[in-house]
C-alpha cells in the first residue's frame, strides 16, 4: 500500500515539510548549542584603546635606549595618562597606552635602576622598541567597531560565548529547539526497572535511547510512556502530545504490516502520511506524517516520526532522518549528517535489496607518508534487534544494495553519528613534523 | 624563575597529578556522557524467548506449503502457546514462538482463505519456511545471559542508554564529573551586560567562555565572578572555591611577569606550583598547581589552573591541558585530544621559538580516487587577543617551532577540539560506491 521511497527522497520530504522554529531571547550562557537568529555586531572597537601587549614600560620609541625616569604607572583598568618624551611609564599587559607614548618595551629588556634621591623610580631601557607600535595592540585591531563578530545562522560554542560576552551581547536571539515527545508502543514492553520479566515480555529500550538522543541534540523531551497495542490508547497518547504543545512526536513500534500495527492508520486519520516505507536496512517501515495545526504553542502542526520497533532500526532512522529534521528546526543551514570516507577493516556481506547502514567505529590511522585516513571497524552482527551493533558506533557506513561481499580494505562513504573527538585510539598517532 | 616546560611535559605532569573521581549511582537517563564505573551484565538472555522476526504465521517448517487452520493468535507480550503439527498460528513481530513451532512464514508469503463453516480461520502457505529457525530470533541470539553488554570505563551515549534499559540497569554506577569554579582577574574587567565601557575597561570574556567549555564537558560550574588585582581579593575567592568543595579552579589573567600578577605567588603560598611556564604559543604563562587537602567534599585537594588572560590563550590552554584533566577525572582511559592529519589550505608563517597551535576549521575533502582527507582552513590572524581566531575552529594545528613559512598544501597534525559531526561542508561530498 505504501510506495517504497529512497532514503534520499525520505530525507528531502522531511526537510521540505519542516521549517526553522522562531527565535527566542536567551541569556548568553544559555546560548551554547543554539543557532543565532541575528547578526551580532560589535558596538565598540576591541581593544577600545591602544593597549599594551606586555608588562614593561610605555615609551616614546624615538627616545631609544638609555636611563629614564619612570613618570607614573599605567595600570590595566585605568584611564590613559599623558607621557612626556624623555620619560617612560611602567605599564601592565592590557593597560591603555599613555597619550604621547607610541610603544612598549617589555620588562625583560630593561633594568631597574636605584631610585633617585627624591625617591624617583628609574629604569634602563637596554633593548629599545623597534619602532612605533612595538608591543602595542592598536585600537580596534582585534575587532573593528561595527564588525559582525558572529553572523546569523552560526552555531554557538564556547568560543562564540566568549565573543558574545566581549561585545556585550548579554542576551541574544537564537533559534528555539524542538520540543520532542517519545512514545513506545507494544504489549510486550515493560519499564527498565522491572526486575523479572513475565512471559513474552521485554524491557522498553527505545524510549530511553531516543529521549537521550533528542536531548543530546539539545531538545526538551516529554516522556509519554508506553502505549499498549490498542488504538484508543495510542490515540490518547497522541492527544497528550498535542495538548503539551510539542513540536515533534517520536513513536517506535507498530508501523509494520501486522494486525496490531496501529500507528499508520491513526496517522492517516489525523493527518497526512508522507511516506510509510523506505528502501533502507535497517528501518524499512519508517513512517513520516504531519498533523496540521495540531501543535499547541507553535501552531505549525505536529511532526510525527513513526520509527520501527527494532531498537537498531529506531536509532538508525533517528540519526538519518529525525536528527537532520531537529537540526533544521533548530536553524542549521546544513542539517544533514556529515559524510566522510573510510577504509573497511574486515569483509562485509552486502544486502542485495536495500542499501545498508552498517554500524562502525571510525578511528584515525596513518601509514607511511599518506595523508592519514579513517579506518572503519564493524560492530559485528547487524541484525536490527541487536543493539550491541550500535555500541560505540560513531558512523554509519553507506553500503550499496549489491549481491556479494565487500572485501576488507574497501573505501566506503560513512556518515558521522557521533563526536570524533572521543573516537577510539587503537594506535599511537605520531606528530607529523612538516618539512619543505 | 619558572623553568619553561614542553607541552608534552605539562600534559604529563597534570595527568600524573590527578586521578579519576569516585563513582556515583545515577538513574539511567542521567548517565549520558558519563563513564561507567562497573561492568553492566545482562541477567537474562535477549530475546528471553524464541521470537518472531516477522508478522505472519508460526509453522512447523516440515509441514511445507498448503492450506492450514489458524489454531490461535500468538501476540507480542503474551505467553507462548502450543502448536500442533498440521496447523499454524498467527504471529506478530516480537511475539514468542509457540512451543511446537520452529519457523515463521511472513504474511506476504501467505494468502488468507475464507473461514470454515465453523468460523475457523484458514490460511494458505504459498511460500513455505526455508527450514527450522526461518524468521525466528533464537533465545539469547542478541544478548546471552551473563554477557557484559557494557564494560567498565565505557562512555555512555544514546545507544548505551538503550542497552542499559534493555538489561534492566535502571540505576548505574558512573564516574562523577569534576565540579569546576571559574574566576576572572583584572582591574580592567567589567561584566558583559555593562553597556558603556569606562576608560581602560573591557568586558570579561574568559569566565563565560571557560564556564561554557567546562559545561560542555559535563561539569557543574560555579561562577566566582571577577577579582580585582588585589591579593586579598584573589585569596578570598580561592577560599570561596575551597569552601564550596569544587574539584578544579580555573583562573584567568594575572600569571605573567607584571607587578600586578598575583596568582602564582598566592598558589606558591597555599600549595604546590608544578609548572608556571610552557613552551607553546599561545599560552606561555600557563600555570598548574595543587592545593593539598583543600577541597571540601572530596578531600583530594583542589586542582588549580592559572590560565593566561588573553582570551585565545585561555581557551587554547583549556583545550590542551584542562579538558584532558577533566576527562581523566571523569574516568576517560584516553583523555587526550584526538590527533588527525590535515592538509593546509593556505601558507602559514611559523613561530621560530614556540610550537604554535594554529586555530583552523577542518572539513572533509576528496579528489579523484583518493581516500579523502581533511582540509584545514586557517581562522586568520592568530594574535592571542583575537578571539575571532577561535570562531568556528574545530581543530588546533600543531605547528613546529621553525623559522619560515609553511606552504599551502602541507600535511600537518591537528588536534580535534570540536565535534566534526557539525563541521562545515564547503563542497558536496559524493557517495562512494565501492566496486571490486
Ligand atoms: N510480514 C512482515 N513482517 C515484518 C516486516 C515485513 O516487511 N513483513 N518487516 C520487519 C521489519 S524490517 Mo527493519 O527496521 O528494516 O529491521 S523493522 C521491522 C519490524 C518493524 O515492525 P514495527 O511494527 O515497527 O515494530 P514492532 O512493534 O513489530 O516491533 C518490532 C520488534 O521490536 C521490538 N520492540 C518494539 N518496541 C520496542 C522498544 N520500545 N524497546 C525494545 N524493543 C522494542 C519488538 O518487541 C519486536 O521484536 O517489522 C518486521 N516485521
Ligand atoms: N613582560 C612580559 N609581558 C608579558 C609576557 C612576557 O613574556 N613578558 N607574556 C605575555 C603573554 S604571552 Mo601568551 O598566552 O603566549 O599570548 S599570554 C601573555 C600575557 C598573559 O598575562 P596574564 O598575566 O595571564 O594576563 P593579564 O591579566 O596580563 O591579561 C592579559 C590580557 O588579557 C586580557 N584579559 C585578561 N582577563 C580577561 C578576561 N577575563 N576577558 C577578556 N580579556 C581578558 C587583559 O586585558 C590583557 O589584555 O602576558 C603577556 N605579557
TrEMBL record, chains A, B:
CC cofactor: Mg(2+)
Gene Ontology terms, MF aspect: ATP binding; metal ion binding; molybdopterin adenylyltransferase activity; molybdopterin molybdotransferase activity
Domain of life: Eukaryota
Primary enzyme class: transferase
Pfam families per the UniProt record, alphabetical: MoCF_biosynth, MoeA_C, MoeA_N
Pathway: Cofactor biosynthesis; molybdopterin biosynthesis
EC number in record: 2.10.1.1, 2.7.7.75
Keywords: ATP-binding, Magnesium, Metal-binding, Molybdenum, Molybdenum cofactor biosynthesis, Multifunctional enzyme, Nucleotide-binding, Transferase
Task of the protein: Catalyzes two steps in the biosynthesis of the molybdenum cofactor. In the first step, molybdopterin is adenylated. Subsequently, molybdate is inserted into adenylated molybdopterin and AMP is released.
NCBIfam families the record matches: Glp_gephyrin (NF045515), molyb_syn (TIGR00177)
Protein name: Molybdopterin biosynthesis protein CNX1
Species of origin: Coccomyxa subellipsoidea (strain C-169)
